Automatic annotation (TrEMBL):
It catalyses: L-glutamate + ATP = L-glutamyl 5-phosphate + ADP. One of its GO terms (biological process) is L-proline biosynthetic process. Transmembrane segments: none annotated. ATP binds at residues 9, 168-169. This is Glutamate 5-kinase. Its EC number is 2.7.2.11. GO terms for cellular component: cytosol. Belongs to the glutamate 5-kinase family. It comes from Aequorivita xiaoshiensis. HAMAP family: ProB.
Length: 256
């Protein structure tokens, strides 16, 4: 029997507080859930943002004037810091993790894609949790992922995942602003259902991640059409990933 595979994407807005500092207990809760899923027979893959914020915490102001160069510097400094966090946390749960940095080119049909598949399949066969992120240090602007939601969707397709869980800082997709009393959470969305009018504009600063709810909605619909159920849920809610995969009515489910 093929093991169940799940791709979990965690955004910068989930792992940081209002001061844009990375919150250790949130990362610990994320890894705890991944360890639980692994024990329950899942092969989890984590797509993690956070390298730019982690780099900004170390460097503070950066001398580079060019936005792309600044992103490369922050991400290059922050990426090993993020992996140190994850390595330590997974080690505490008796698990192993590995880093996979990718550019969009790696998903183009051909040798690069085959190589990526071999890498993921090899790691999963060994019971190692792959941690994916965009290779910001070498990504060219014209061939960058729109954000890590897109990367997560491509990884889910690549490994033929049984589910994609996109974690954000709201409980799912709402019919208005999540804080408005009149707004209602949509529990289920069909890929052909028109819900784009409900999405609020995103206002993000440097290092805070590129994706907003508009991107998540687009990616969730695209992924569901590939027969991969996709969930948008609140990553700051305790046990949210495990509960969703156990059938609890949390977040917004996009189904094929």
């Amino acid at each position: 029997m093929k093991e169940k595979r799940v791709v979990i994407k965690v955004g910068t807005n989930v792992m940081t507080n209002k001061d844009n500092r990375i919150v250790g207990p949130i990362l610990n809760e994320l890894v705890r859930q991944i360890a639980t899923l692994y024990e329950d027979g899942y092969s989890p893959v984590l797509v993690s943002s956070g390298s730019a914020i982690a780099g900004m915490e170390v460097l503070g102001e950066c001398l580079a004037k060019d936005d792309a160069t600044r992103r490369q510097i922050y991400s290059s400094v922050g990426q090993p810091r993020m992996m140190r966090h994850y390595y330590s946390l997974f080690h505490d749960y008796g698990m192993r993790c590995a880093q996979i940095l990718a550019t969009k080119r790696d998903f183009t049909p051909g040798k690069h894609r085959e190589n990526m598949i071999n890498c993921y399949e090899g790691l999963l066969a060994e019971g190692i949790v792959p941690i994916a992120n965009e290779d910001d240090a070498v990504s060219l602007t014209m061939s960058m992922f729109s954000d890590n939601d897109e990367l997560a969707s491509l990884v889910a397709e690549l490994i033929e995942a049984d589910a994609l869980v996109i974690l954000t800082d709201t409980d799912g997709l709402y019919t208005g602003h999540p804080d408005d009393e009149d707004s209602q959470k949509l529990s289920k969305v069909h890929p052909d259902q028109a819900v784009e009018q409900y999405v609020q504009a995103s206002s993000k600063g440097e290092g805070e991640g590129r994706g907003g709810m508009k991107s998540k909605l687009k990616i969730a619909k695209q992924t569901a059409k590939k027969n991969i159920p996709t969930y948008i849920a609140n990553g700051k809610r305790k046990n949210v990933i495990v509960d969703i995969l156990n059938g609890h009515d949390l977040g917004t489910k996009f189904y094929a």
